[in-house]
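Appendix C reproduces, verbatim, an entry submitted by the partner laboratory led by Prof. M.T., so that reviewers can inspect both the input and the predicted structure.
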Amino acid sequence: MQKKKVLLMGKSGSGKTSMRSIIFANYIARDTRRLGATIDVEHSHVRFLGNLVLNLWDCGGQEAFMENYFASQRDNIFKNVEVLIYVFDVESRELDRDMHYYQSCLEAIIQNSSNAKIFCLIHKMDLVSEDQRESVFRDREQDIIRLSKPLDVTCFSTSIWNETLYRVTILYIF
């Protein structure tokens, strides 16, 4: 049995827990509305695609928790990570702060799990008008890739309201 530590990070409200609930707990999108904010870190072991067991760490994105992850919990959170999934809310009004936290994650990953695969989800794309989605995604992707150098990162456009989340998870991440 193969176990992988998967770190799910991003600012509060970006959609991490909704995504996790849909992919790994068979929620339907409308049922995620009743989910509360994640407090600190929620650990779960999820059997996925047969023999793969994911040690999933869903990290609350409130500012106090994020600061704590990078200070006193840094080694614990970022050690032995095989996959980092960082979720950006496409409609965030605090892009600079989002990028700051993302960059802090990258620094901690380099120090503690330099071989981790890094995926960024530009999430809630259903909230962007259809004719703007591609350009909004490409602009955000360029910013993320520029900030990520020299690390290799792959970005995806996702929503809980269509198949994009499933496709990304099954075809690319795992």
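The chain has a mean pLDDT of 86. Additional entries are available on request from the coordinating office.
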